[in-house]
Write a structure and sequence with these properties.
about 25% strand; alpha+beta; five-stranded mixed beta sheet; about 30% helix
Length: about 140
């Protein structure tokens, strides 16, 4: 099975369909389009021109980088797509971060171990406190 990759923003409809397929809600198309346009980095993995894997980095491009929307179509999971997404993301980070930069992510429940293989650690509360977020 052959996959292709590119670093352009995904087709909006394909991206929204992939999010829905894994059970995530989508905001309006206009919001999704604006959000993707303001991303620092995209990695798309396609099979027969269909989006089967996606990841991106958002942030200020200097001090703060956040992994966002790391998605793999459930029909294509356990085929190394998630690992390839993360390898591309880590390659970008190695070229664009400097000492003192913060790279963060919000892992879906049960996926923490996947990210730990790339050096990400859960925040246990010591010494930085537990991570927090606010959904609007």
């Amino acid at each position: 099975m052959s996959f292709s990759t590119h670093h352009l923003a995904p087709n909006i409809s394909d991206f929204m369909a992939l999010r829905a397929k894994i059970g995530w809600q989508n905001p309006t198309r206009a919001i999704v389009e604006k959000s993707l346009a303001h991303s620092l980095f995209h990695i798309c993995i396609e099979k027969d021109n269909a989006l089967v894997g996606y990841g991106r980095i958002v942030g200020d491009g200097a001090m703060y980088f956040y992994l966002q929307d790391i998605l793999v179509d459930p029909d294509f999971q356990n085929q190394g797509i998630g690992k390839h997404l993360m390898q591309e993301i880590e390659s970008y980070l190695s070229q664009h971060t400097t000492q003192g930069a913060t790279v963060g992510l919000l892992a879906a429940r049960g996926k923490e171990g996947f990210y730990q293989q790339f050096g990400y650690q859960p925040r246990t509360g010591d010494p930085l406190g537990l991570g927090m977020c606010k959904f609007i």
